[in-house]
Amino acid sequence: QLGFEIAGQHALAERHGAEFRSACFALRIEPLGTRWKVVYRQGEMLREIIGQRLFLAGGGLHTPALLLRSRTALPRLSAHVGEGFNHNGEMQYAGILPQGFDEIDNYHCFKGMDNAGLMTFHWYESHGFTLHPGGGIEPSIFAAAIVSGSALAATPEVELPRRGWGLEYKRFVESVYPSRVIGFSSLGLAASHAAVTVRPDGTPDVVARDRREYDSYLDRLEGVLRDLSRRTGVTIVPAYPRRYAGMTSAHLLASCRMSERADSGVVNPDGVVWNYENLYICDASAIPYALGVN
What we know:
Number of strands: 11
Strand order of the largest sheet: 6-7-5-10
Radius of gyration: 22 Å
Largest sheet: 4 strands, antiparallel
Mean pLDDT: 84
Distance between the termini: 22 Å
Structural class: alpha+beta
């Protein structure tokens, strides 16, 4: 269904004069007065296109990488490009409920009204994070095990959903989720601890920065989870070791952050890149800091 929706949007845009070029990789951009040139690769061919306005939407990794690859042609580009990279404080856990938990023999985490997940803001004001049980990547992990023939399989045939939200996804989670297991993730007001750079070949890289403030965020989160485990009897297991926290996420933010002044960010409040007319950033890289919500 999502594919049909996107195809419909493309058709509508094309009727109004838009042109879509697929399987392309933008190599660099260059200002031509108030116009912009994009040099890109399509298959083995090197091509270029010129337009009046340029909108970058490559996400938290590829938008700053494209700007950094183009720095020679953009001498007034902000030094903040790539800095402040943030993954929205995401961590992932599994909670194993004890036998007889509140007289419930089995617990299935697919209780959202129109989705598989729920969200709690209970600790948002006091500790700066939210918890998200049941949705997102956690059920997909179980699905991967099922597809690969794992003993986790609840049914011999499982049809994968077309997208990771909505009623279809909720019914999918209901069919595969083990009982007495709660997969959940945290999102929070975490400080940046990394930056996006480019390697010599121009591909993006993520390098470590000072993570003391980020570790303080993890301390608050883990303290609450330990207390929650002690009070409820739920065994809480992190999906990966703490040293890998912040290395993976679907929330890649703040690498071209929005700011009120040119000396403190990359784009202005209208999404225009400081010092460059008609160059816009319209993706999550412009979000200035972690939000702590999905």
